[in-house]
Specification:
The chain has a two-stranded antiparallel ribbon. Helix 2 crosses helix 34 and helix 5 crosses helix 34. By secondary structure, it is mostly helical. It folds into 5 domains: about 240 residues, AGR C 984p-like (AGR_C_984p-like, Orthogonal Bundle), CATH 1.10.3700; about 110 residues, Orthogonal Bundle (AGR_C_984p-like); about 120 residues, AGR_C_984p-like; about 70 residues, no CATH class; about 110 residues, no CATH class. The protein is built from 41 helices and 2 strands. Helix content is about 60%, strand content about 0%. This is Flagellar basal-body rod protein FlgF. Keywords: Cell projection, Cilium, Flagellum. It comes from Hyphomicrobium sulfonivorans.
């Protein structure tokens, strides 16, 4: 007769083959096929309990087969709020029930949790916010290029017709005054530019303020010519038009605009002979206000004058009331009466640079603050967007989105944008793709709306549990030294904040830090990129997938913790399902394992106990973990020759007895687990030379009658061994 040890090692050393053989047994295959085909139809705890085959399959898989009759009890388990430490499942001593509840997505109401709907995934949201930030910079760079072209070429214009013939100059001039060059009539603009502004009936005066400003920005005669010795535009007019252009193109807050304003300020300061020259010039005054950290809209000329003429030796002067105002005052040479000493400029080179630096700091700071406010609003508002119409009706969100993709709201209708957002960017015949504009395709790809406008499930590389498991596995590989722990914690933090930003397998494999992290965590140091890609893109429910055909448990563990599709993209969250794919896969795997252990127990109960202990050993965290599980306790008592009567003692004394006999940390080491089981099987052989006790009586105790109430069952499940 084969010994217990030999039988255990025969099964354990060929476990994958044994599992495959068991999975192919007609009854196991039939029940598994039924479970996979029907678990998706479960939409409530009622549905789950009503389908006896589905219910019993899950119960057996999770080691709770002895409780098949106790459906009222199991309802309380499944309807527990797992986030509440005082909920029913969390309070039960036997943690099998908690693990069972975690394997399903039931709410306390008994319904299936719908899941998280997201109009935009976190990765797309971050990318779009990055685009929004970049657009502020890009708009400024584009505006600066157009401004430079205008400045370089306006001097060559000798008539209004020259200006009208140059499309870039024409567009620049009209845009600076808030006029749409595409809609403007060239002949009408000619009449505006040649208007006599002193004549109330002239075309410019009749058309209104914008046209009056456009005419005033040039010096064309009524016949369209430029007078001999004159220019179409003075330098001052050119600079003012450039300023207006930055404002009109919404690039006034860009770094390029700040650089232009600084250069213009320094040029204009050459003609300043006293403080009033500065404060009476709105541009110069606003520049100084910004440098002083003040809002130009709410800052008076008197305030700026008071700062600039302060006596810095007087602690009570206006400038000395603020370190920043004092710093600004120090960049000028005005006397307290506003005058300048003979031969002294308002600023020297060093002072001009110091003021320019202050201006840039607060100009950019204000821009960033405004940008941050818009970004914060976007992030918060998007959390509640469940339909495309809600997004389109929020003007702040709408403008933020269009700005991010450099789309002018005046160029497109909301109807068109809606059709784009409802497009499938992966379909070459979708509306967004047929427009043949990459901005529109990118816009469609940035959101998750179905064809009816409803938000879809979010794309997420890992669930919270998956990320938590990966980090735990990684930390378990770290050495005990403080340097190893410090470095490991830093890598874990990087992983935690980075992993959810990925949108494909390729991104993961190209990030060496993340790849090294998962390779170490899952014990796959020899895996190539090609192997990792095959693992991560395997369908765990397809028996023919790479992972399932490999029989490698580490491969399966890695695949289960990630949510990549077979094409390498990130899967959308499964909505309204009783079990997610990873949990279905775990349930199936556990069912196969239970079936193997059950078959082994029919021949030799010691083999079943050894297989069970081998499966559970890594989850043992303390002696109390052993005491809470009858089968684990049976193995430990047998191997260590501890008397069964110890269960009559106080629970803490029992734990102390176990602690003195073994170190539970050893059960994290597979080789030490095997050594312990060798000891157990030898002891089992000596104690069980005749027929063994049945499997169920050891693993699950004596059968309980169906008439026992739920409350009594709860009390039984919560009994602490030893009565304590």
């Amino acid at each position: 007769m084969t010994t217990t040890l030999a039988s255990f090692y025969l099964i354990n050393s060929n476990l994958q083959r044994t599992l495959t053989t068991t999975a192919n047994k007609p009854m196991v295959a039939r029940e598994t096929e039924y479970y996979l085909a029907n678990i998706g139809n479960v939409k409530s705890v009622d549905d789950f309990l009503a389908n006896d085959r589905v219910f019993k399959y899950a119960m057996k898989a999770w080691g709770l087969e002895e409780m098949n009759y106790a459906k009222a009890f199991m309802r309380k388990v499944l309807e527990s709020d797992l986030n509440d430490s005082s909920s029913f499942a969390n309070k039960l001593t036997d943690k099998r029930y908690l693990e069972f509840a975690k394997a399903f997505n039931f709410l306390p109401t008994g319904d299936v949790e719908l899941g998280t709907l997201r109009a935009q995934d976190s990765g797309s949201e971050d990318a779009m916010i990055g685009l929004y930030t970049q657009q502020r910079i890009s708009k400024g760079e584009t505006a600066a290029a157009e401004a430079k072209y205008f400045s370089d070429n306006i001097g060559s214009i000798t008539s209004v017709d020259d200006l009208l013939a140059n499309e870039r100059l024409f567009n620049f001039a009209l845009t600076s005054q808030g006029l749409d060059a595409k809609l403007a009539s060239v002949s009408a603009i000619r009449n505006v530019l040649t208007s006599d502004l002193n004549d109330p009936n002239s075309v410019a005066n009749v058309y209104g303020e914008k046209y009056q400003k456009l005419a005033a920005a040039f010096s064309f005669a009524p016949d369209g010519s430029v007078a001999p010795g004159d220019v179409a535009q003075t330098d001052q007019q050119t600079k003012q038009m450039m300023l207006a252009y930055y404002e009109a193109t919404d690039s006034d807050q860009s770094p390029a605009a700040a650089a232009f304003k600084s250069a213009y300020f320094n040029q204009a300061m050459a003609s300043v002979s006293n403080v009033d020259d500065l404060v009476n010039n709105s541009f110069l005054r606003d520049f100084v206000a910004t440098a002083a950290g003040l809002n130009p809209l709410y800052t008076t000329a008197a305030t700026i004058r008071g700062i600039l003429v302060s006596d810095l030796d007087d602690p009570d002067s206006i400038a000395n009331q603020s370190a920043l105002h004092k710093a600004v005052a120090a960049t000028f040479n005005f006397n307290t009466d506003g005058s300048l000493d003979s031969g002294v400029a308002a600023q020297d080179t060093a002072q001009a640079k110091a003021l320019s630096d202050l201006f840039t700091k607060y100009h950019d700071g204000d821009s960033i603050s405004a940008e941050q406010a818009s970004t914060d609003y976007y992030r918060n508002a998007m959390k509640s967007i469940q339909h495309v119409d809600t997004l389109l009706s929020d003007s702040k969100l709408y403008n933020f989105i269009l700005s991010s993709f450099d789309i002018n709201p005046d160029d497109v209708s909301k109807t068109k944008i809606k059709r784009i957002l409802l497009s499938d960017p992966s379909s070459p015949t979708s509306y967004a793709n047929l427009l043949q504009d990459s901005r529109f395709k990118d816009l469609a790809a940035a959101f998750n709306f179905d064809s009816d406008g409803f938000a879809l499930g979010a794309r997420q590389v890992q669930t919270a549990d998956g990320a938590k498991n990966a980090i735990a596995l990684y930390k378990a590989t770290l050495g005990d030294s403080s340097s190893a722990q410090t470095l490991g914690n830093a890598e874990a933090q990087y992983y935690d904040r980075t992993i959810l930003t990925l949108s494909s397998v390729d991104q993961l494999l190209k990030n060496d830090r993340l790849k090294s992290f998962i390779v170490k965590a899952y014990g796959l140091k020899d895996a190539t990129n090609d192997t990792l890609r095959k693992i991560l893109t395997s369908d765990l429910l397809d028996e023919r997938s790479f992972v399932n055909k490999s029989g490698n448990e580490a491969y399966k563990a890695l695949a289960a913790d990630f949510k990549f599709d077979t094409d390498g993209s990130v899967r959308r969250a499964e909505l309204g399902v009783a079990q997610s794919k990873p949990d279905i896969m775990r349930t199936r795997a556990l069912y196969y394992r239970q079936a193997v252990e059950e078959d082994a127990g029919n021949e030799n109960e010691g083999v079943r106990l050894a297989l069970y202990f081998d499966r559970k050993a890594s989850s043992i965290t303390s002696p109390y973990s052993i005491l809470a599980d009858k089968a684990l306790l049976q193995v430990v008592q047998t191997a260590l020759r501890l008397p069964t009567q110890m269960s009559l003692l106080d629970i803490d004394r029992q734990a102390d007895m176990i602690s003195k006999a073994l170190d539970v940390k050893d059960f994290k080491d597979p080789s030490k687990v095997q050594a312990f089981l060798t000891r157990f099987t030898a002891a089992w052989e000596m104690d069980n030379s005749t027929a063994s006790q049945s499997a169920a009586s050891i693993l699950i105790g004596q059968p309980l009658e169906a008439s026992i109430s739920t409350s009594l069952l709860t009390n039984i499940q919560n009994l602490r061994l030893g009565g304590a």
